Amino acid sequence: MTPAPRTPETPGTPGTPRTPAAPRTPAPFSLHPELDPTALGAFVTALESGDVTRLAPARAAEVAALRSVAVFTRGKVSGADGDLLDAGLWRRTGTQPRPVIVMPSPWTSLGWLAYAVQATLFAARGYDVLAYTARGFTGSEGQVEVAGPLDVADGSRALDHLLERTTGPVTKIGFLGASYGSGISQLVAAHDTRVDAVVALSSWGDLGEALYENSTRHVAAVRALLAAAAKARLSPQTQSVFDNVLADRDVRGTLRWAEARSPFTHIKELNRRQVPVFYAHAWHETLFPPNQTLRMFNELTGPKRLTLSVGDHSGPETPGMLGLPDRIWTDAHRWFDHHLRGIDDGMADEGQVLGEVMWSRTLEPRPTWPSLTEHVHRLYLAGGGELAEQPEAGWTATVLCGVDTPATVADTVVTSGYAELAGRPKVYPTGEIDRTVAAVWAAAPTPETLRLRGTPKLRVTYRAANPGSGFVAYLFDTAPDGAAHLVTHAPYTDLGSPPDSLVSADLELQATAYDVPRGHRLLLVIDARDPFYADANLPRATLAFTSPEPTPSYLDLPLG
What we know:
This protein has 14 helices and 26 strands. The chain is 25% helix and 28% strand. The strands form 5 sheets. Strands 1-2-4-3-5-6-9-10-11-12 form a 10-stranded mixed sheet, sandwiched between helices. The termini are far apart. Helix 11 links the parallel strand 9 (277-282) and strand 10. It folds into 2 domains: 37-370, Alpha/Beta hydrolase fold, catalytic domain (Rossmann fold, 3-Layer(aba) Sandwich), CATH 3.40.50.1820; 373-559, Sandwich (Jelly Rolls). The chain is α+β, with helices and mostly antiparallel strands.
């Protein structure tokens, strides 16, 4: 049985292991809360039997279309070490040439069932498809290795299984995954030269950076992964790594573990073969923050596409997994049609980046990621709480540690993004932020719409009385009545500076495409505690922010 995730650690002396609190039983949690296993199960049963009486008309039509050209079967794939993996197989009838797609499952007890509708749509369009459940989940044997070598070997074994059962010649091969399956798909493509194209939805590029963003432990993400895998069988190493992140142990060991599981580590192989990769990501992603995936995307030299949307992990692509119209899945089909079937569908002539603007949801294509930002406007942190046009030295803004504020990343991992998708982003009461536990700087009201496009950057200097310190920086769009929406944020932790020294923090906030309305203000808030991240500060310690004359504190705004 998988041990329960842990509650936040009790504070200890920075630089030494901390004592984790007593374990608790995790509440039921899903990274894909809108997926209905009963409905998906009924759909798969209809694929087998042809009886569509329990399905909605649209789903019934999909079943009929599939059964007229292909055969669906459930079965097992012989994975690495002889472990059997649960799978669904869609095989086109006839002997005509066809491309094939392998789909490793997301991090969910649904396993491959999550792909049932989309795999059916791909098969009806001319592909043979194998969707399988990653090892350690649901009906698959083995233990969860988090995209380790056995998972990569499983992907190749699944491809072998599909190729052996395809009745016609195979032209090209694609791997597609959402969430967990997206990381596995990229890694298989890097190691297996047979793979011709990849679709990676809500993915990661650098797993170490996702777990330790700016040296800050992402404890909420780890707890969410543990809760979502409560019925899975984690390997002892996987459980140990997750426990170590929560308990602040063996950071170097965890980063070594994560390095092998990061597609970014193997990017040379993807580039050597110019493997086309399609990414879909959310601006407010709380599991795999977008900057680490952006770094991967920008280093790819082959054909590539990135679509960034309002919402959180897996939310933007979930409608398509339910069989509803979804532009992300539409583009995933177009990506494979172009790169696996050779169809001229205009994909090659479109820009590399498609960004959905908050909160208008306008879609903006751009030729490259750098082209989003036309120029950078620098605002300086001033002593009167202003974001000013000129630097100002000699001021101090002191923050008391150990106290949370209304400035937080989100209410919950993943599910807060569904409110954003529904047009109800969280409203932050900025007037309730206690200025003794947070430092706040406000810009002048914008005379016209301010188009933030790209990656904001923050430089700030502070003095910490103790070794080990950190903060979280938030950028808000604030209306005249004080109600605010979160634009972006980033954590920062310093573990190496001696006590009572000045720390110069340079960090990138997460990338954004945000329109600040006319008359609104940008508000920069820095506090020392957020439930999403581990707290490196001692309770009741203070952080004294300042702006030395030689190296002033500033915020760089990317404008488009």
